[in-house]
Amino acid sequence: MPTIELGKYLTEKSERYHACLEACVECVVACEVCAEECLSEDDVAMMRECIRRCRDCVESCVSCVILLSRGSDRATELCRACAEACEACAEECSRHDDDHCQRCAEACRRCAEECRKIAA
Prior knowledge:
Blueprint lengths: L17 H22 L8 H23 L4 H19 L5 H21 L1
């Protein structure tokens, strides 16, 4: 299975964020797939909140990836907000039995955990 080794791109300044970067990237992919799959459901209206939460989570995670990659000192504030978005998405996704929702919820929980470490 192909993997992206983000560590080879990190600098001394951003290396401390490696685990959080990995979790954010994984979460972006999981949320994008989940939202896309939700749009294919027979009852899209039932999945509306799931799609919204996934979209919010993606935007938060992408912003975190950008700041974490730079080693920005603003990362702590953004990681706090990202953790909240990820937790909200995980809560919503876990309400649905679909595999894509369950995988997304798991990725969101992991990302929230890593973001909380940075925000602490």
